TrEMBL record:
UniProt name for this protein: Outer membrane beta-barrel protein
Organism of derivation: Ramlibacter ginsenosidimutans
Domain of life: Bacteria
Keywords assigned by UniProt, alphabetized: Signal
SUPFAM superfamilies xrefs: Porins
Signal peptide: 1-23
Keyword Signal assigned: yes
Length: 376
């Protein structure tokens, strides 16, 4: 499956580039190279043996864009190269990332198709992804995502989103899986500051069969969650924007009814900006395999210290039930724009995972140097 997806990805990306070239489209290139030295007190989030390592990490990323009329094609290729000072705890890694996007926009329709191949260490996955602790492993994600929106009138529009993911894990305890996520939404704009929307959404999780002995007879089964939402988007001022939605949600394994919802706020001032996002939503617990109810929260704050320096704060948590599992993350970073192309930053973060195995914590501090060049 992974090979077929990767080959299809390359064919689509090549066709996109060829189409753009034949049309004599405008070509854009950008390069970003991030170099880090990071000390990690517990890279594998081990409960019983929290040994640390120092990472030397390089993350080159090249983006190519083709624009022709209403069509846009983007191809992004990147690597994460990591060298560990203690390979007994965490091994050296080279993880690729490849993403291709086609976009179309006209007066009535907007459409997008994106293909992604992304491999990363388990310690680097998002806080909402509950993976096993104490494992020096990796997850490879293959995904195809599409969206389409049509303007029905001057005040109304409708759209659909569909995303298909395939997840593969190097450790035998975590099941490979497929996840299908879909939603349809109708939006009506009441005035310049307020709009209402209604949506139906669903997720379908399927574990992939494996021949590993650890997976035999695991009892993991498919699960589905589906529901509806009614929401409002309100601009209280030029600086403050709110979005709130809620509705019923049904899980089929085990069968139970519940509710889903989201509350988010964004505020922008002269020297600082920030936001908060609170959600109750279905998500996958990759440790046990299946869709569970998740309560999630995120917050971010950026304060401009001067013309070239800023202080960035981020925090996130994810609490899943059946079984109960909690992930939390907090970070603070000082960022200085040294020159137009060079940026230096110092970042500190704390990660915490609590689940069936116990509680694991990791403290990380990093020095980061970033080079960026656009319109190459």
């Amino acid at each position: 499956m992974a090979g077929r997806i990767a080959r299809g990805f390359l064919v689509v990306a090549g066709a996109a580039g060829a189409t753009a070239a034949l049309a004599q489209s405008r070509t854009l290139y950008s390069l970003n190279v991030q170099t880090e030295i990071e000390r990690d007190s517990n890279p594998n989030m081990s409960v019983t043996d929290p040994r640390g390592t120092t990472w030397f990490r390089v993350l080159p990323n090249l983006t190519t864009g083709y624009v022709y009329g209403n069509e846009e094609f983007d191809l992004e290729a990147g690597l994460t190269v990591e060298k560990s000072s203690n390979t007994d705890v965490a091994k050296d890694r080279v993880d690729p990332r490849l993403r291709g996007v086609w976009k179309h926009a006209d007066a009535v329709d907007t459409a997008q198709l994106a293909l992604l191949v992304d491999r990363r260490a388990l310690r680097a996955v998002d806080v909402r992804e509950h993976v096993p602790v104490g494992v020096d492993g990796a997850r490879t994600l293959y995904s195809i995502a599409g969206s389409w929106t049509r303007e029905l009138s001057a005040r109304s529009r409708a759209g659909v989103d569909l995303n298909q993911e395939w997840d593969q894990y190097t450790d035998v305890q975590t099941p490979d899986s497929r996840l299908t996520v879909g939603a349809a939404r109708f939006t009506w704009q009441q005035d310049e500051r307020r709009s209402w929307y209604a949506a139906v959404n669903g997720q379908y999780y399927r574990p992939e069969p494996r021949t590993d002995a650890a997976q035999a007879g695991s009892g993991r089964t498919s699960s589905m969650a589906a529901g509806a939402l009614l929401g409002i988007t309100q601009s209280l001022s030029e600086a403050l924007r709110l979005d709130a939605s809620a509705g019923p949600m049904h899980f089929n394994h085990p069968s139970k009814d519940g509710w889903q919802g989201r509350l988010s706020a964004e505020y922008t001032a002269q020297r600082w900006s920030g936001g908060i996002d609170l959600a109750r939503t279905p998500s996958v617990n990759y440790t046990v395999g299946g869709l569970v109810e998740s309560r999630e929260g995120r917050a971010h704050l950026r304060y401009e210290l001067g013309p070239r320096s800023s202080l960035n704060l981020q925090a996130a948590y994810s609490l899943q039930s059946d079984p109960e599992s909690t992930n939390t993350f907090a970070s603070v970073a000082w960022v200085h724009q040294w020159t137009p192309g060079w940026q230096v930053s110092v970042r500190g973060s704390v990660n915490r995972q609590q689940g069936l195995e116990g509680t694991a914590r990791s403290n990380r501090i990093a020095l980061v140097l970033t080079y960026s060049a656009s319109d190459l």
